[in-house]
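Input set for joint prediction.
Command: fold jointly, output tokens.
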Amino acid sequence: MKKAQFFYLLRRGFFAGGGGEWSTLVNAFKTRVIADGGTLESESCIRDDVKYLIQNPEPVPTPAFTGLLNDYSGAAAAYSLRLLDNTYTGDAIVVRRASDNTTQAIGFVNNELDTTSLESFCSGTDGFVTTWYDQSGNGNDAANVTAVTQPKIVSSGSTILENGKAAIEFNVNWLTTSYPLPSVFSAFNVAKTNFANTFETIIGSELTFNDWIWHLFRSSKFQLRPDSGSYYSGATLNAQKYLINSIYNGDLNAYIDGNSYISQSSVALPSPSGNLQIGTTQSNVSYSFNGILQEIILYDSDQSTNRAGIETNINDHYSIY
Amino acid sequence: MAYYTSTTRSELEAYNTLVVNGEGYDGVYTTDWATIVEHPNGSDYAILKHDSYTAELTEEETLGSEWFPQNDIE
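tokens >
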């Protein structure tokens, strides 16, 4: 369409007559022209206004971010390298860089870990996680004040990635929380093990085997152990990333990548008394995790009815299966 | 990973302090170099050796599995 034809049609109200997007745009344009003191009879005025509108476009509203914890609230502890709750204003992690052992808190940009700040801080060196903040609002942060057992997140200046997403690498490393283990729970873990150690703890008790249900990889399988003498397991797994969900409400169930993996009724659980540990149990190197973790969300309630939705949210983000 | 061993725990605590001071850990987010490992016999101790710090202690190339007993777990 030639410019003269456009102005002719505009003056005749051609675009405004049929409704729809064109009508909306033209009416908005007319309103802007008139508000600016212009007239549709003046081509130069319209030209200036079009130029103005192009240079000053109406802001396009950004859809409000909704995190997993906004949709599925009530988590007791939630650790992730993505933002889980749009009301959470804290940081994701605190990192110690190996070059001079100074630390810096790293937050989120666009709801993901701020890897630009992370790599700027750890330029050319390794970075270790001293604190993984709890996003649940309960203050159950996971931390490790001992340098040699702090897990790694930056290697030689580059963020450790798993399938393009930031990941925390554990190799005889762990984090301890102040979260007293619950007697009823639903746990969601994004984990990839290398099966390098005999016992690969994802989460467990700070105290003893008999204190809680120990979550671990063992003999190429995932196991849930209510004590050192008994365990429940399923099919052989590969050295790849999995979404692992466990739910205990008297019965014990586990799901891997959305599929049932363990189903056991009437499992006895002693009264838990210790705190949650990530990557080990009892701070024991022999039971430490070797692999990567990206997200751990723990509810002190039965989330069976929300399980599929939570799993979908996690899988949509991490593209696990 | 090499370890220093001793029958005197305080010697290994002093080594940990040597590394902490030398490395300049912030004392808040990082307070220790490594945790002292206690042998199940109750009389021997070990600590991971830092590559940059030496001490007049017995050095072991690695610690045997007897230092890290695992419960009788299937």
